[in-house]
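Deliverable D4.2, example record:
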Amino acid sequence: MTSKLCTGCRTEKAIDQFSKPWVHYCRPCANQRSRKDYAARGGAEYAYAKGLKYNYGLTVAEYETRLTAQGGRCAICREVSPQRLHVDHNHETGAIRDLLCEGCNHAIGKAQESPSRLRAMADYLERHDEASER
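Output generated by the structure prediction step:
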């Protein structure tokens, strides 16, 4: 068998136009169906809610409650972020800590979640603060 009929566009197409031989829709039709299904489920908001639940066990309402409790600000720098705040968690236990802006979340990750390393970084910056050297 070198070709088959696509159920979506009702066109006879070569087998290589299908993702797998047993799939009934050609790639363009399958993509179109996936986009429609994604939009019907809620699009990016649906995907975000699903990721929150899967990764952290949080619902969107629980995330919003935490965000409100933090005044809509990062728990470390207290800045308002133009993007959603990240859910900070302990990578060993999975326990959720707080919501952080991207910069603070990445800083903790780059410091390998080590309080002593973060303190050493702060000490270093203070030692090399140009304003205090003047």
